[in-house]
Amino acid sequence: MILGAIADDLTGATDLSLILSRNGMRVVQVIGVPDTLDTVAQDADAVVIALKSRTNPAAEAIEMSLAAARALQAAGAKQLFFKYCSTFDSTDEGNIGPVAAALMEHLGTATTIACPSFPENGRTVYKGHLFVFDQLISDSPMKDHPLTPMRDPNLVSVLSRQTDRPVRLVAHETVRRGAAAIEAAIAQEPGICIVDAISDEDLRAIGRAVAELPLVTGGSAVAMGLPDVYREKGWITPAAPGEGFAAPEGRGVILAGSCSAMTRRQIAAAEKAGVHMLRLDALEIASGATTPEAVVAFVEAASQRSDLPPLVYSSADPAVVAQAQDKLGRMRAGEVVEELLASVAASLAARGFTRFISAGGETSGAVVAALGTSALRIGPEIDPGVPWVSALDADRPLCLALKSGNFGGEDFFLKAWEMLA
Ligand SMILES: Nc1ncnc2c1ncn2[C@@H]1O[C@H](COP(=O)(O)OP(=O)(O)OP(=O)(O)O)[C@@H](O)[C@H]1O
Ligand SMILES: O=C(O)[C@@H](O)C(=O)CO
Question: Where's the Four-carbon acid sugar kinase N-terminal domain (predicted)?
Answer without folding.
Answer: 3-226
